[in-house]
Amino acid sequence: MSAPLQIGTVVLGGRPRLVAAGGDGEVDALLRAEEADLVELRADLFDDPQPAAVVAALERLRTGPRPVILTVRHAREGGRATSDDLRRPVYEAGLTVAHAIDVEIASAEALAPVVQQARDAGRFVILSAHFQRETPSLGTLLGLVARAETLGAHLTKLVTTATSAADLRLLLEATLAAAPRPVATFAMGPLGVGSRVLFGLAGSLLTYGSVGRSTAPGQLPIGELRTWVDRLHPT
After folding, report:
1. Domain 15-228 in this protein, CATH class
2. Which terminus of the chain, N or C, has less C-beta within 10 A?
3. DSSP H helical segments within 63-193, as ranges?
4. Over the stretch 71-117, which tens digit does the pLDDT of each residue have?
């Protein structure tokens, strides 16, 4: 029997796990986010994302009960502009503290040493793709899942922008077709709000909520997200 998929002490599978996301201005709120199962520190949202500052924030979050994901999101996928020369040292320093990292599939080759270091250290690796304007084709989405697996992902995260019901249907089809490979999927924008709750029924393993400023369009506050997930995914 294969080992369970888990981030820190949180086992993935069944109902979706809730991730509270924020930057340096939300560290206290992330520590208080009792509705969350995990927390994500968005280092790209720091005013000055130097490795020492990111590690200090991660160490504070490690004093709480929830495992921590470190993300330095690239600007082309929705992050705040951060020098490529800085992203790698931030990830490398953060690996000593974080339970997991999230790296874009598009950056995974350039950051391949970071991905390998994470796996060697027993950290969980999320490889992700974020589409700020559209939902690409089913073939493109499933191709990304296959590529992420090849590049060392434990889980592939696909985040698109829904401009129509057809976009939601397409992303749902990709979620179902990706099984049994582990994925987290949802759509951004007003039409995508329901996907953050409902796609767990199709196998999406993670969904993300805010504790202050939203980190993506259509993101729900973590407390509201917990209410909906508890209603639709009873224990």
Report:
1. alpha beta
2. N
3. 84-94, 112-120, 138-150, 165-178
4. 999 999 988 888 888 999 999 999 999 999 999 999 999 999 999 99
Residues catalogued as catalytic: 130, 157
Tell me, rounded to whole angstroms, the distance of Cα 68 from its chain centroid.
Answer: 11
Q: Provide the residue ranges of all domains of the chain, joining segments of one domain with +.
A: 15-228
The C-alpha atoms of residue 210 and residue 39 are separated, in whole angstroms, by: 10
Tally of CB atoms within 10 A around 116: 12
Q: Judging by DSSP bridges, how do beta strands 155-161 and 124-130 pair with one another?
A: parallel
Note the residue count of the chain.
235
Cis peptide leading into 180, omega within 30 of 0?
Answer: yes
Closest CA to 7 of 109, 112, 116, 98: 98
- Alpha-carbon distance 203 to 28, whole Å? 31
Question: Which tens digits make up the pLDDT trace of 154-194?
Answer: 999 999 999 999 999 999 999 999 999 999 999 999 999 99
Question: Rounded to an integer, what distance in angstroms lies between the CA atom of residue 162 and that of residue 76?
Answer: 18
Are 171 and 195 contacting, i.e. CB atoms less than 8 angstroms apart?
yes
Give the C-alpha separation, 151 to 131, whole Å. 20
Our CA angle for 142, 193, 141, nearest 5°, is: 10
Amino acid letter, residue 47: D
Closest CA to 23 of 69, 67, 63, 62: 69
Whose CA is closest to 73, among 111, 99, 36, 120?
111
Look up tokens 């888990």; give the residue: 6
Q: Is 68 exposed, middle or buried (0-12, 13-18, 19+ CB in 10 A)?
A: buried
Q: Decide the pairing of beta strands 155-161 and 6-7.
A: unpaired
